[in-house]
Protein: Urea ABC transporter permease subunit UrtC
Amino acid sequence: MSFVYEKIMGGKKGLIGFIILAALILVIFPLFLDSFRLNLVGKYLTYAFAAVSLVLLWGYGGILSLGQGIFFGLGGYAMAMFLKLEASSPENTAIQSTPGIPDFMDWNQLTELPWFWEPFTSFTFTILAILIVPAAFAYLIGSAMFKRRVGGVYFAIITQVIAVILTVLIVGQQGLTGGINGITDLRTLNGWDITSDSAKNIFYFINAALLLMVILASRVVLTSKFGRILLAVRDKEDRVRFSGYDVANFKIFVFCFAAMISAIGGAMFTLQVGFMSPSFVGIVPSIEMVIFAAVGGRMSLIGAVYGTLLINFGKTTFSESFPEMWLFLIGGLFIAVVMLFPNGLAGLWDDYGHHITNKLRFIAKGFSKLVPQSMLRKVEDAR
Structure:
C-alpha cells in the first residue's frame, strides 16, 4: 500500500495533483465542452505525451532533445499506415489503375505495395511497431551519442538535424509516405468508423487514460533507484561515472523510454485527428514540445500537461483572433513565463500555492465560527 502511495502516487502532494488533473480531463472537460472543443483538447493531450517525456529526459536527465517530434511522428505514421491500408481495400480503390494500394502510391505510379508497408496490415504488429520502432531508433541515436560522451548543446543540435533529415526524407519520398500532404483519408479501425463524433469522444477518454497511466509509470521510474541515479547524472555526471556506473546506459534507457512515450502520443494523435503529416515531425513541433514542458515546469510531470494545455489554448485563441500575430504572442508568452517563473507553472504553485491554501483554511475557520455550536454538535452526533 505504501509503495502505491509513495512511489506511484507521489505521496500526499502528488496524489492531490493527480486527482485534480484526472478530474479536469475525465470529468470537467467532457461535461462542459462540446464535441468539437473536446476533440480539440484531445489533440492537445496527445502533445502532452511528448511534454511528459521531456520532463523525464530534460528535467530529470539533463538531456535536452530538440527532436522529440521524430518519435511523435514515427508513432503517428505507424498508426496511419495501418489505417490507410484498411481504407485502401480493392473495393474502396476500384477506380485506381492499381486497386488495393494507397491512393498516393497510385498517383505516383507505383504498381505494388512496398515491402515495409506489408506488415502494417496487422493491428498487433502496428501496436508493437509504435512502441519498438521509435525505441530502437532512439537506441541507435543514443548509443552513437552517449557512448562517445556527446551531450549538452551538441546533442540538442544533432537531434534537431535528425528531425530535419527525417522531414526531408518523408517529403521527398511522396510515393512511399504521402509526401508533404502526409497520410490522409483515414476512415476505419478494424471496421469501426473513426470519423464520427462518438468515436472521437471515445478516443478522447482512451487518450486521457493512457496519459494518466504514462504519468504513473514515469513516477515509478523517477522514484526508483534508477531515478535517483538519473538525477545524480544530471547534477554530477563525472562523480557518478567515477563511482562505477555506466552513465551512457542510463541516458540511453531514459532516451528510449521517452521516445516510446512520445510515440504513443503520436499514434493517439493520428486516431484523434485523423491524419499524419511531416509538419508534426520537424523542428517547429519539436521546439513547441520543449516550450510545453518549460511552461508547465520541466521538473513536474503533471505541470507539463498543464503547460501543454495552456500553450495550445493560447495558440488556438490567438490564431483565431490575431492570425498574423499569434506566433509573436506565443513567443512572448514563453519568454515571459521563463523569465518570471523559471520553474514554470509547477514552480509557481510551489512558491505561492501555500498562500492560497492558507487563505482557504482561514475562510474555513471563519465559516466554522459563523455556524452555531449547537448545529455542529448535531452534525457530530449524526455521525
User: Anything to note?
Assistant: The CA atoms of residues 19 and 301 lie 13 Å apart. DSSP finds 17 helices and two strands in the chain. The first helix runs from residue 2 to 8.
